[in-house]
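Minutes, structural biology subgroup

Action item carried over from last meeting: produce the structure token record for ATP-dependent helicase DinG (Nocardioides iriomotensis). EB confirmed the sequence was re-checked against the source entry. Recorded below for completeness.
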Amino acid sequence: MAEAVARAIGSGEHLLVQAGTGTGKSLGYLVPALLHDERVVVATATLALQHQLVERDIPALLGAAEHLLPGGTPSYAVLKGRSNYACLHRVREGVPDDQGVLVDVPEGTMGSEVLKLRAWAEQQAETGGPGDRDSAPKHTDKLWRQVSVNHRECLGATRCPFAQECFAERAKEKAAQSSVIVTNHSLLAIDAIEGVPMIPEYDVVVIDEAHELTARVTQAATDELTVPEIERAARRSQKHVDGTEADDLADAGDALRAAYEETDEGRLDTLPTALADALVLVRDAARALVSAFPKEQQGGGGEVDPGRTQARGWVQEIFKTSERMAAHVESDVVWLSRRERQRGGDVLCVAPLQVWGQLRSKLLAEKTAIFTSATLMLGGDFASVATSIGLKPSERVEDTEVPDLVEAAEVPEVEEERDRREPWRGLDVGSPFDYPRQGILYVARHLPPPGRDGMGAATLDEIVGLVDAAEGRTLGLFSSRRAAEAAAAAVRERLPHLTILAQGEAQLPELARLFVEDPHACLFGTLSLWQGLDVPGDTCQLVLIDRIPFPRPDDPLMSARQRAADKAGGNGFMAVAATHAALLLAQGAGRLIRTTADKGVVAILDPRLVTARYGRFLADSLPPMWRTTDRDVVLTALKRLAQT
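Output recorded by EB:
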């Protein structure tokens, strides 16, 4: 892997590397990245991997190789979005209320927790700490918003009186002086695709957890509009403008609320007249209100009004979002979601129909990209993932071995060819695990196909039988919260001697701790457990998957993408729904074998994996475990394993 990454950096060809759990893939890309003469960006999907790279992998590597590095020890830095850092202006001056007036901390328990976070931020400022959310005391999202700002609320380095101490600005400065920058997919998308300069200049990017990239880029490019948000922006703006523009925006918000009530929930292929008219009202009112704010002096001179700056930022964001929604171009998908009033009420959403075009034209055309993950080959091939990130299967460069690195680096690049094509290579470096000996993949072929009426009696019987044979030690991955709760209730009733933990009964870290501590515990949950849980050893010897995790048929974005693929002459079901399911299945099945000593069973309770035409594609995306549909064989294996 390291040789292939070095070759890609030298030749300018893109690279996809599937590297299973336990291969040490972070070292596989960090070694050539640290040896590269220019800056390299490493982008991850999760904060946990960022933390692992910065706190463990890079320091260990540099410490071990210090005497071998020709130009001294390379520098590295972590860079996150602004809202991930405490804001010293907000800490010291307070949070704006609905009128834009800076107020002190709230009373009660929340107030005391805010004071703790403020004290921590001041201590970080004094000691030169990072001031980021990961190093903060335990807190909720609501508490963190009391000590942080997003990009639209930030006063800017030229106008903030605390700019010299600013954690976010210091992180940017450190990144500008570093040869390796560790960041996240969302910040990478904002920098490369939206064109907002967030990351210092670089020519090579390594994208770890690359199976998450399209989802994270889509998320970063998704905007939402709610009426309470418009009302708050209008109230905050009233004291800063002389005319009626703030009232006009509030009135436009009322019109939008009425339009939401008349609009059906779900994807909107065309905007209803009332909704289209209301969006235009909001857009025009927001534009007028932005213009009504007093002009701020250029160059940072004069007194800064934080309440005014932040109120104007809110209105600008509303203008940008409403303008995008009102335009309703073919490349966007718009939908309405119903929410309870306490959760902000109805929300209108807009997201890009696809992101591969932007990734190709704005990232791949400018940078050399290395994509790596434990799950990049779906259906046994790189084609599905390559297509989703902007690489064409026809552009793949085939070879059976990695050529000599020096020769590869010296191959002259033909500029015209690069303009037309984005050559890429695919490499599967395998796994240190002996999957056929360590794991069994069991498909319960005898069960009825899952329906819409919830989990049937036969499926519940199957779950209880498998869990009983394993004597607990089960991670249950379910397609819905309702299914997880039904399974937990059934197992608790029929196997009362076992400990059954269900997602939602406590925070995930607490549930994971209890799961590890009790050798006869089961943990049942939904999507966050499919990808975010790492419990090696005897804790988990059975992974239950209740059904193939296809996206919901009424999912606005997925259904729009599937229809677009059909319209373009492809197979929308395979390109979107089956690919989505294959990726999640591979991630879920990957929870079982985490070390070379782990053993167990992945039980999929959906017979379509072996009976449907698309089942082969899904099965070929899973680790190559020994496969069976014989229930008795599996029960015997689990009982024997439980006794060892």
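Discussion: Residues 82-166 form one domain.
Next step: EB to file the record with the rest of the batch.
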